[in-house]
Amino acid sequence: MNVDDAVSSMTLEEKCTCLTGEGYWMLGGCARLGIEPILVSDGPHGLRKQAGAADNLGLAASEPAVSFPTASAVACTFNLDLMRTMGEALGDEAREQGVAVLLGPGVNMKRSPLCGRNFEYFSEDPCLAGELGAAYIQGVQSCGVGTSLKHFACNNQETNRLIVDAVVDERALHEVYLEPFRRAVEQGRPWTVMTAYNLLNGAYCSEDAQLMERIAREEWGFEGVFVTDWGAENDNLASLPAGLDLVMPGPRADYRREVAEAVSRGVLSEADLDRAVSRILGLHEQHVSSANIGIKRSQAERLDVARAVAEEAAVLLENDGILPLDAAARIAVVGAFARKPRYQGAGSSKINPASLDCAFEALEAAGVPVAFAPGYDADTGEATEEQLAEAVRVVSQAEVAVVFVGLPDASESEGSDRMDMALPAGHNALVERVCAANPNTVIVLQGGSPVELPWRGKPRAILLSYLSGCRGGRATADLLLGVANPSGKLAETWPLRLADTPCADFFPAQGRQASYRESIYTGYRYYDAVGIEVAYPFGHGLSYTAFSYRDMRVADADEGFEVSFTVRNDGDRAGKEVVQLYVAPRDAQVFKAPQQLKGFAKVELAPGEERRVALRVPRSSFAHYCPAEGAWDVEAGTYELRVSSSSRDVRLCREVQVAGKAAQPDNAPGAYHRVAPGCFTEEAFALLYGRRLPKVLTPLRPYTANATVGDLQTSLLGKAVCYLLRRELKLLLPGDVAQQKSLELLAMDTPLRMLAMSGMDMNLVAGIVDIMNYHFLRGIKRLRSLKPAKQDEAAEASSGKGAAQGAGQEVRTIEEDEGRCSTSSQKGAGA
Ligand code: BGC
User: Quick one: how many helices (H) and strands (E) in the chain?
Assistant: First the structure.
């Protein structure tokens, strides 16, 4: 297909029809021109193709697929080749199931261990997340399947994610939050980028021209399709001119109709429309032209990839030599997760595993006789005295106790954040009791995000498997037994306690605004600046062998440096070492993190083998973003290049002189130069932000379509609605109080405009808003006026005419009404 010719031959209605999905997962194309519909499906760490009922919460069934370790695990491999291989396996599976675009990867940064979706994101470090994101994209797209890099941008908390405004200063925005997207876009060239639900500095991401046009397209050269997250579209006339192409899910007749009408009246430019349509048709074309790319791996081979990733992802946090286990020893395994593992998180990434193993069976299959006791309830995490006593009895008769603990399913999900970093009390009690009963205790930790380990120091080893996918059981058994050698390193810091984290006092933000008060000081950037002790630093991970480093050389290369050094495996087992390169400014005047990861590699070495490793450090590694100039700057001065085995284990170091702009003090508040716990006050942040903070829009009266169900409780009528909702949930889920509660919480945070996602016309939503504002007549008139229009549309659809055509009259009615819920009024208020 010649996309330009196709666009120029399309009617206005046909073009507008392309702008939204044909359904929950389909993009319609253009039947008249023979442009076939294409299918998109979630990701990121397995395919969630739904053949029947559709949802974005992982509730309805999906086709069986390989469940790979989730991003927080994969990141610990620090292995870009393996990431690419996993991408290929995902791409193969998508291709086999007829999926054109896989909705992933997610490269959002981790601000706090509490974010409910941390398991779906790679790292607290933008370099690592961006490089992995690019490799994932390259892998998937090499199979002729597109990706959707998400969630662009600053979608870092789940609480109020649909309405929260992420207020981020320019330095943090560019250096931390956009950086992984930049790397992934420039190196991976994703077919699509998904705009986040939230607002960023006062504008919805799907309406943010600065983000989409100026930064992603002009600066990074993004040429693909901007697609909304499911339901993230906000104002029907604001997205297209800001650079958004595709609204999902569809069909969203109201969107098609309003855009068509606005283009006819010259309110929206036809050139903008054509650009969006040609990108969308370009996506169809990319799919079609990949038709003859073959499948690279069988299902069995993909399962092997899942196992290889799980093996390289596991991080050996502690080991005094008890691991690897002696297979001849009497081993007791306790903890329900050994048989019913936590291997993936909940929400839109939740897939239906084609097969699932567990560590207990894998150990048995390896010929190791193991005694077992569950120790706690796998779902609730609670332990009864009987369960604990049984576990103690079992481990007392064994030479070694292996205890499986972690976060239960309910604590990690899209849509909500954790409120603390604690393991369930039952799990902690089990570890304490087992350690007291058997001095040879090994812990296997499952979960997608860091937790507090109050018993740290008591067990002899801790193996962290994160959420290791459907082959995590075999991988864990191999690692415990020494068939495989652990080589994962932490892609995020494990702090000692929640109170130590950079935004402990203000994460997750509860209202409609989240101030990123810690600015650039996320993860190790913060812990290093404060000089605080952590449980396990970024980049940490042990091996069954030992590596030594020597002979560091630094040579000029292009405008930066090439750092080379020798790594040697000093032990008697083959192993893999993740070498890390950090840049540390010595005499910065501008506030900066004490050190930043700028390069890494994974090196595989046989016993006694040594290898020269060379890492490039381009000039950009020394740059910081300069808000006054709206550009990157390099500050002249001395920098250390540190070759490290973890962020706190520097093995080799060299100072270099870097030419650049003469160092000059910035005007940032002292808190950002002398970082201390609790220093990031609202006042300091307001000064750093340097412009008026966006206005917080609460309470929302009169209500708009952006009022959440929870907001409605500020009126009597709204209270009644919420009461009815709770009653309905009780009737719907009798006895399941936890599920009732979590759906209620979800509903309370949901803005009314999201009803459009379930197929409701936005004008119907506007009618509901009128009624909630006690404009009964206007609301009812609006609701009634919609019925004939719907019938018209149905008639037109069946007669083959476009949806936008007969709807103009209704649009006029809406526009005459100043009470409409539009966000433009919101943005005005916030400006
Ligand atoms: C999630 C996206 C996902 C989409 C479709 C949204 O709730 O934020 O990551 O791709 O649903 O399921």
Answer: 24, 27
Q: Tell how far the Cα of 157 is from the centroid of ligand 1, in angstroms.
A: 14
Residues 365-417: pLDDT tens digits? 999 989 999 999 999 999 999 999 999 999 999 999 999 999 999 889 898 89
- Ligand 1: centre distance to CA 147 (Å): 13
229 is catalytic: yes
* pLDDT tens per residue, range 536-590: 999 999 999 999 999 999 999 989 999 999 999 999 999 999 999 999 999 999 9
Asked whether residue 106 is assigned to any structural domain, the reply reads yes
Residue 825 lies in a domain: no
CATH code: domain of residue 675? 2.60.40.10
Half-sphere exposure of 477 (CA within 13 A, CB side): 24
Angle at which helix 808-816 crosses helix 253-264, to 10 degrees, equals 80
CA of 196 to the centre of ligand 1 (A): 9
Q: 702 Cβ partners below 8 Å, 6+ apart?
A: 773, 819
**Across 733-744, average pLDDT:** 78
Report which of 131, 185, 114, 191 is spatially closest to residue 153, judged by C-alpha positions.
185
Please name the residue whose Cα sits nearest to atom 12 of ligand 1: 56
Q: What are phi and psi of 316, to 5 degrees?
A: -85, 105
Residue 158 Cβ < 6 Å to ligand 1:
no
Q: What single letter denotes the amino acid at residue 31?
A: A
- Examine the domain organization and report whether 669 and 759 are in the same domain: no
3-class DSSP state of 599: strand
Residue nearest to atom 9 of ligand 1 (CA): 348
- Strand-strand pairing, 192-195 and 146-152: parallel
> Are residues 558 and 678 part of one domain?
yes
Of 774, 769, 615, nearest to 707 by C-alpha is 769
How many structural domains are present in the chain? Answer: 4
User: Which one of the listed residues 229, 235, 500, 770 is annotated catalytic?
Assistant: 229
Residue nearest to atom 3 of ligand 1 (CA): 348
Name the residue of 25, 41, 56, 246 whose CB sits within 8 Å of the most ligand 1 atoms, as the mutation to test its pocket. 56
**Ligand 1 atom having least distance to the Cα of 57:** 7
**Is there an atom of ligand 1 within 6 Å of 351 CB?**
no
Q: Which of 42, 45, 227 to mutate to test the pocket of ligand 1 (most atoms within 8 A of CB)?
A: 42
**Residue reference for tokens 């029809």:** 17
SS3 (DSSP) at 1: coil
pLDDT-based confidence at 698, cuts 50/70/90?
Answer: low
| CB distance 348 to ligand 1 below 6 Å | yes
Domain that includes residue 46, residue range: 3-289
Partnered with residue 553 across adjacent β-strands are: 564
Do 335 and 403 meet the contact criterion of CB atoms below 8 Å apart?
Answer: yes
Q: Whole-angstrom Cα distance, residue 474 to residue 472?
A: 6
**109 and 156 in contact (C-beta within 8 Å)?**
yes
- Ligand 1 centroid to 230 CA: how many Å? 6
Residue whose Cα lies nearest atom 8 of ligand 1: it is: 229
Given a cut of 80, whether residue 802 has pLDDT beyond it is: no
Q: Position of tokens 């567990």?
A: 358
Cα gap 431→143, rounded to integer Å: 45
Asked if 277 and 392 sit in the same domain, the reply is no
pLDDT for the residue numbered 791: 42
Cβ–ligand 1 contact at 652 (below 6 Å):
no
- Taking CA atoms only, the protein residue closest to ligand 1 atom 11 is 56
According to the model, what pLDDT value does residue 253 have?
Answer: 94
- Tell me if 120 CB under 6 Å of ligand 1: no
Phi, psi (deg, nearest 5) at residue 31: -60, -40
- The continuous run of DSSP H or E covering 148 comes out as strand 146-152
Residue 331: CA atoms inside 13 Å, Cβ hemisphere, count? 25
What is the 317 CA–ligand 1 centroid distance (Å)? 32
Provide, rounded to the nearest whole percent, the portion of the chain with pLDDT above 70.
Answer: 94
Residue 813: inside a domain: no
Nearest Cα to Cα of residue 103 among 48, 65, 156? 48
